[in-house]
Amino acid sequence: MFGKNNFLCLTITIFLFSFSAEAQQMMKDMKMMDNNKITKAVCVIYPTEGNTDHGIITFTKEKNGIKVVADIEGLKPGEHGFHIHQYGDCSSKDGMSAGGHFNPDNMPHAGPTVKMRHEGDMGNITADANGKVHFEWTDNLLSFEGKHSIIGRGVIIHTVRDDLKSQPVGNAGARVGCGVIGIAK
Length: 185
Ligand code: CU
Ligand code: ZN
Description:
The protein is α+β, with helices and mostly antiparallel strands. It has two domains: 1-36; 40-183, Immunoglobulin-like, CATH 2.60.40. The chain is built from one helix and eight strands, in the order H-E-E-E-E-E-E-E-E. The chain has one helix spanning 2-35; strands at residues 40-47, 54-62, 65-73, 78-85, 121-127, 133-139, 154-158, 175-183. Bound molecules: copper (II) ion and zinc ion (ZN). The site of zinc ion has 7 residues, from loops. The site of copper (II) ion (CU) has 8 residues, from strand 4 and strand 7.
């Protein structure tokens, strides 16, 4: 009799202990998630129908903004409009499903160095004679948090140059590449 009770007691103790250890770990994980703010994001660019451009863009949080590094190839040589668009939706063949420029503050379209601009206005990237681009830009308007967060938004590469002034999208023409910004490690 005594042995049976002892066994039951032990079983309950082990159960309670493991439960509380699990609960503690869960709380720890939740705290970590809270403290683990997003510091890096990535966007893989795929060509829209009839185009060949593709590449990778990384967004890394730095002291004075978010550093954007783009490596794209398969473009026509020359300048191409390069923006963050409202929707991370590349489902349409022409990239139009990504919507207009990401513009949470209701600003006019402009160039990346202007204060009054769409948040998504990153200007142009320039492809070399081989159709390749390496582009770096640190942007102090972009954010990974709140209403300015670029996470889940789209990136569009256009067929021609953004003139940085025509409304609402800089006259950059058709959309040749599209990607979605996701959280990275
Ligand atoms: Cu665009
Ligand atoms: Zn714009």
